[in-house]
Design brief:
The chain has about 190 residues and is mainly alpha-helical. The protein has 9 helices and 4 strands.
Length: about 190
C-alpha cells in the first residue's frame, strides 16, 4: 500500500502505491477496524486528529513501552512450574473449588449453558496446564477473564467469595512467576 524511501540527508519519504486507494477502501468495509469509523466520519481530520490523540493517551495511561512490542507473543511462552510450590497449590485448589461450585449450580446451567461451558472449559484448561507443570501467562489471563465473567454473574452471592479467592491466588502465582509479563494485564482486570 505504501513505500518508504530513506534518504541519507533528509527524513524518510512515505508515498502511496497505485493501488493504495482501492486497498484502503477495502479496509473501510471492516467495521472492526478504525478505518470504518474514519470513512463514516467523512475521512476528515476532524475525526482523525482526536482519534490519534486518543491512541496516544491510551498508550500512556496503560504504561505501554516500546519494548512491549519486542516479543508480542511472550505471554504464551510456556513456563515450567513445580508441584509443591505454595502459590501453585493455592491456585490449583481455588480453581478446583470454583469449578466444583459452578458445576453444581443447576440454575446457571439452565439459564446460561453456553456461557457456563465456556467458563468451565477455560478454567479446566488452566487446571490441565497446571497438572502438566507447564503454563503460560496467557492461560492465567484467560482464567482471569473467565473468573471476571463469573464474578459479574454471581455478584452478591456466596460464590463471589470463592471467585475472589481464585482471582487472588492466580494473581499471587502470576506475580511470583511471571513478574513484568503480567504487569500490564493486571491493569485490565482490576
Amino acid at each position: 500500500m505504501i513505500s518508504i524511501r530513506y534518504d541519507t540527508f533528509g527524513p524518510p519519504i512515505i508515498f502511496k502505491h497505485r493501488d493504495f486507494n482501492d486497498k484502503f477502501d477495502d479496509l473501510t468495509v471492516d467495521e472492526t477496524l478504525p478505518f470504518a469509523s474514519y470513512h463514516a466520519a467523512g475521512r476528515t481530520m476532524d475525526w482523525l486528529i482526536p482519534a490519534l490523540y486518543s491512541i496516544d493517551h491510551a498508550y500512556d495511561n496503560l504504561g505501554i513501552r516500546p519494548e512491549d512490542f519486542d516479543n508480542p507473543d511472550s505471554e504464551w511462552a510456556p513456563f515450567q512450574i513445580e508441584r509443591g510450590d505454595p502459590e501453585v497449590e493455592k491456585a490449583i485448589e481455588s480453581l478446583q473449588q470454583v469449578i466444583e461450585e459452578v458445576r453444581a449450580d443447576n440454575a446457571y446451567a439452565d439459564k446460561f449453558p453456553h456461557e457456563r461451558d465456556y467458563v468451565l472449559d477455560g478454567l479446566q484448561g488452566t487446571l490441565d496446564k497446571f497438572a502438566s507443570q507447564s503454563i503460560s501467562a496467557g492461560y492465567i489471563q484467560a482464567s482471569f477473564e473467565r473468573l471476571r465473567m463469573l464474578g459479574r454473574r454471581f455478584a452478591g452471592t456466596i460464590r463471589e467469595t470463592t471467585i475472589a479467592t481464585a482471582k487472588a491466588a492466580l494473581m499471587e502465582f502470576g506475580k511470583k512467576h511471571f513478574g513484568q509479563v503480567l504487569d500490564h494485564i493486571w491493569r485490565w482486570l482490576f
